[in-house]
Design brief:
This protein is α/β, with parallel strands linked by helices and 147 residues long. The chain is built from four helices and five strands, in the order E-E-E-H-E-H-E-H-H. The chain has one domain: Nucleotidyltransferase, domain 5 (2-Layer Sandwich). 37% of the residues lie in helices and 22% in strands. A five-stranded mixed sheet has the order 3-2-1-4-5, sandwiched between helices. The chain is globular, with a radius of gyration of 14 Å. GO terms for molecular function: hydrolase activity, acting on ester bonds; nuclease activity. It is found in: Cytoplasm.
Length: 147
């Protein structure tokens, strides 16, 4: 899943140790039209939803940049969707491309998290903003993997 060792691959938390001085994280649930956002930290192990980014292309990166400036995370976390059997699909590749773009534009470490069913879980919990709730689920899954 992590693609560790592949050119341009982004490490997953399960395959790469996350330095202990990385305490704060900004997470994204990438979507073509909307990107959920959450903030969280290692100490509490919880995530808080932030307003969803409703933009595409460069307009999305303007908003991402503003969030990074506001929250000053030590690293970024992105959810990467897969089919139930673990196979990649078009959205998998789009999320991985977004992860590479984040790393290149903002010079921050980016960790990938398998986010199968995060949106389903967010919707079933009655979330008003399923994208932001999904970003929280992704980030909390990542934070649990650190302990």
């Amino acid at each position: 899943m992590s693609g560790e060792g592949l050119p341009g691959a982004t490490p997953s938390a399960s395959t790469v140790s996350v330095p202990p001085h990385f305490q704060s994280f900004l997470a994204f649930d990438y979507g073509q039209k909307r990107t959920g956002v959450a903030t969280g930290n290692r100490i509490l192990g919880t995530a808080s939803p932030q307003p969803t980014i409703k933009a595409e292309g460069d307009a999305r990166f303007v908003q991402v940049s503003a969030r990074i400036k506001e929250w000053q995370p030590d690293a970024l976390v992105i959810g990467v969707p897969f089919h139930p059997d673990g196979a990649a699909h078009d959205n998998t590749r789009a999320a991985q491309k977004f992860a590479r773009q984040l790393r290149g534009r903002f010079n921050l470490q980016v960790y990938e998290v398998d986010e199968r069913y995060s949106t389903t879980e967010a919707l079933s919990s009655g979330a008003r903003d399923a994208d932001a709730a999904s970003a929280c689920i992704i980030l909390e899954q990542f934070l649990r993997s650190l302990s």
